[in-house]
Design goal:
This is non-specific serine/threonine protein kinase. GO terms for molecular function: ATP binding; protein serine/threonine kinase activity. It holds the Pfam family Pkinase. The protein is α+β, with helices and mostly antiparallel strands. The chain folds into three domains: about 140 residues, Phosphorylase Kinase, domain 1 (2-Layer Sandwich); about 190 residues, Transferase(Phosphotransferase) domain 1 (Transferase(Phosphotransferase), domain 1, Orthogonal Bundle); about 150 residues, Alpha Horseshoe (Serine Threonine Protein Phosphatase 5, Tetratricopeptide repeat). It has 20 helices and nine strands. It has a six-stranded mixed sheet with strand order 1-6-7-4-3-2, with helices on both faces. It has a three-stranded mixed sheet with strand order 5-9-8, covered by helices on one side. A hairpin with a 2-residue loop joins strand 6 and strand 7. It is elongated and about 85 Å long. The two termini are about 30 Å apart.
Length: about 500
C-alpha cells in the first residue's frame, strides 16, 4: 500500500497492513501510522492519542537518554526480566518504553505481528500502545505515559491520603469497561492483571496498561505475581483464558475493598462468613455504603470462582458496577487529591516562515494570499510527462486547473473545489499545490476532514514540502487535535530549516 493510501486510511480511522519487522523507518508523519476507531467501546478518544507507529532504536535511545537508569519507572523480577522507562519524544510527548529481555522474542516477525495487533486498540480506558521497535535482537514497546502512578501505589503505598470509596468504585468500573472494549475488539487475553497494571493519567482517570496484552516473552510465563493470586486453571495447564482475566479482575476488587493484597482464598472465607468489617479497608473509616460494599464483594466472589465457567463475563462486570457510581460530577484528579497537569502543546523550536506563522495563527486569509502569490513554484519536478501524454485529455485537465485557479484567486471556493476535483480525478498529473489549494478551500467551507485528506495527499506527492505539513496543522487544529497540529507545525518548520541549508526548493 502506498503512502497516500495509508494516510487516508489513518484519517478515516481504518487500519492498513503493517510494513513488517524489516521496515525500521522513523514514524515522522501521518503517512507511517495506523489508527483504529474505538467505536462501540464507551468513552472514545479525544484525538490526542497518536496512531500506532514503528520506531527506530535511535528514536527510543534519544527519548530515554540512552535508556538511563534514572528514567526507570518499573522493573520486573527474574521470571520476566524487562524494564519500563519514561521517555520524551522530540515533540515533547511523554512515553513509556518497555524493553524486553534480549531473548524474550527471538522471532522479530512474531513480535511485530503481536505488537501491531494490540496497537489497533484505542480507548480512553487504556494506556494505549503507540509503537514498537524491532532492531537486531532488541524488542521494545511504546505506550502513552501515565504520570500519576499505579493503583498499587495509591492503595498500598500512599503518603498523603487513601483512595476514597467513590474513586475505588470508579476504578473498578473503568477497568471493567476497558476489558469489555477489548473483548469486543477480539483481545480478551490480558497477562498478569493486577493493581500495578492500573495506571492514572494526567486527569487522574484510571486506565489499563496496554503492555499487559503482550506476554513478557513468546514462551514465557503469563503471571509473575505470587502463586496465591494466580487463577487455578493457570496453575493446572499454564494457559491464560478470558476467564483467567476475570479471576484476576476479582483480585483487583479485593484490593479495592481491603486496601491490602489479600490472597483470594482467605478473602473468600471472610466473604462467606459475611465478615464485611474485617475485610474492608480501615483507612476508609467507615465512609462507604454497606450495600455498595456488599455488591462489590459479591461480584468479587463470582469472579474468583474455582470453575472458570461460573465466572461472570465483562458485560456482567460493567452492568454490576455502573449503578454503584457516585460523585460522577467530581473529576478524578479532585478525588485523587492531585493537581490537574495541563501540558501546553509543543511549540516549534525553529523560526517560522510567513506561511508557517499564518498557519500557526490559523489565518486563512493570509494563507490564501500566500498560496496565490506562490502559484505553482513548488510543483517543479513533481511530474514528468511524456510527449504521448499531451493529449486532448491533458489539455482539458489543465483547463480545469486554470479555471480552478481563477476561482481560487476570486475567492469562489466552492467553484475552485469543483474545478480542482476535475483536475485531480483524471489522475494523469499530481500537483501538491492543487491539493494545498483545495485543502484551504475545504477549510473555508468548514470541511476540516476533507482539508486534512488533501493536505496529506500533498505530502504524499511531495514528502518534504513544508506547506503540506502546515496545511495539515491547520486542519488538525480545526478538528481540535491540538497536539497533533503542533507536531505538524514543527515538522514544517524543520523542513523549512532544511531548505535554507540547501535542500530542495527555495
Amino acid at each position: 500500500m502506498g503512502c497516500c493510501e495509508s494516510s487516508l486510511l489513518a484519517v478515516k480511522g481504518q487500519e492498513h497492513p503493517h510494513p513488517g519487522p524489516q521496515n525500521h523507518s522513523k514514524p515522522a508523519t501521518a503517512a507511517h501510522h495506523v489508527s483504529s476507531d474505538p467505536a462501540g467501546g464507551g468513552a472514545a478518544l479525544d484525538g490526542a492519542t497518536p496512531p500506532f507507529s514503528e520506531f527506530s532504536l535511535a528514536d527510543l535511545k534519544s527519548a530515554t537518554d540512552n535508556f538511563s537508569s534514572d528514567l526507570i519507572v518499573s522493573e520486573s523480577g527474574e521470571k520476566a526480566p524487562n524494564v519500563v522507562y519514561k521517555g520524551r519524544l522530540p515533540n515533547r510527548r511523554s512515553i513509556a518504553v518497555k524493553k524486553f529481555n534480549k531473548m524474550a522474542w527471538p522471532d522479530p516477525k512474531q513480535f511485530a505481528d503481536e505488537a501491531w495487533g494490540v496497537g489497533k486498540l484505542r480507548h480512553n480506558r487504556l494506556a494505549n500502545l503507540i509503537g514498537y521497535c524491532c532492531d537486531a535482537d532488541e524488542r521494545l514497546l511504546v505506550a502513552e505515559f501515565m504520570p500519576n502512578d499505579t493503583l498499587a501505589k495509591h492503595l498500598f503505598h500512599w503518603e498523603n491520603q487513601t483512595l476514597e470509596w467513590a474513586m475505588r468504585l470508579r476504578v473498578a468500573k473503568y477497568i471493567a469497561e476497558a476489558l469489555d472494549y477489548c473483548k469486543a475488539e477480539g483481545r480478551e487475553l490480558y497477562h498478569d492483571l493486577n493493581a500495578y497494571r492500573v495506571l492514572f493519567d494526567e486527569n487522574g482517570d484510571p486506565r489499563l496498561s496496554g503492555f499487559g496484552f503482550i506476554k513478557n516473552s513468546r514462551d514465557g510465563r503469563s503471571y509473575s505475581t505470587n502463586l496465591a493470586y494466580t487463577p487455578p486453571e493457570y496453575l493446572r495447564n499454564g494457559r491464560v483464558t478470558p476467564e483467567s482475566v476475570i479471576f484476576s479482575f476479582g483480585t483487583i476488587l479485593l484490593d479495592l475493598l481491603s486496601g491490602k493484597h489479600i490472597p483470594p482464598t482467605h478473602a473468600l472465607e471472610m466473604i462467606r462468613d459475611k465478615n464485611i468489617p474485617l475485610l474492608m479497608d480501615s483507612h476508609l473509616e467507615g465512609n462507604f455504603l454497606t450495600e455498595e460494599a456488599t455488591a462489590v464483594m459479591e461480584l468479587a466472589s463470582k469472579c474468583l470462582q474455582y470453575e472458570p465457567r461460573e465466572r461472570p463475563n465483562t458485560k456482567n462486570l460493567v452492568a454490576t458496577l455502573a449503578p454503584l457510581q457516585t460523585k460522577s460530577d467530581v473529576p478524578s484528579y479532585v478525588m485523587l487529591g492531585i493537581s490537574k497537569h495541563e501540558e501546553a502543546p509543543p511549540t516549534p523550536q525553529r523560526p517560522l516562515s510567513p506561511m508557517g506563522e499564518a498557519c500557526q495563527r490559523m489565518d486563512l486569509t493570509a494563507i490564501h494570499q500566500i498560496l496565490v502569490i506562490t502559484h505553482y513554484r513548488d510543483d517543479e519536478g513533481t511530474n514528468e510527462l511524456s510527449f504521448q501524454e499531451w493529449t486532448q485529455q491533458m489539455r482539458d485537465m489543465l483547463d480545469a486547473r486554470k479555471r480552478g485557479d481563477l476561482a481560487f484567486r476570486d475567492k469562489d471556493f466552492k467553484m475552485a473545489i469543483e474545478c480542482y476535483s476535475q483536475f485531480i480525478d483524471v489522475g494523469t498529473m499530481s500537483s501538491p499545490t492543487v491539493y494545498a489549494r483545495r485543502s484551504l478551500c475545504h477549510l473555508l467551507c468548514d470541511q476540516p476532514d476533507a482539508a486534512l485528506r488533501d493536505a496529506m495527499q500533498a505530502q504524499c506527492v511531495y514528502p518534504e514540502w513544508p506547506t503540506a505539513f502546515y496545511m495539515q496543522s491547520v486542519a488538525l487544529a480545526k478538528l481540535d487535535m491540538q497536539k497533533d497540529a503542533a507536531d505538524m507545525l514543527s515538522e514544517g518548520a524543520a523542513l523549512e530549516e532544511k531548505r535554507q541549508r540547501g535542500g530542495k526548493g527555495s
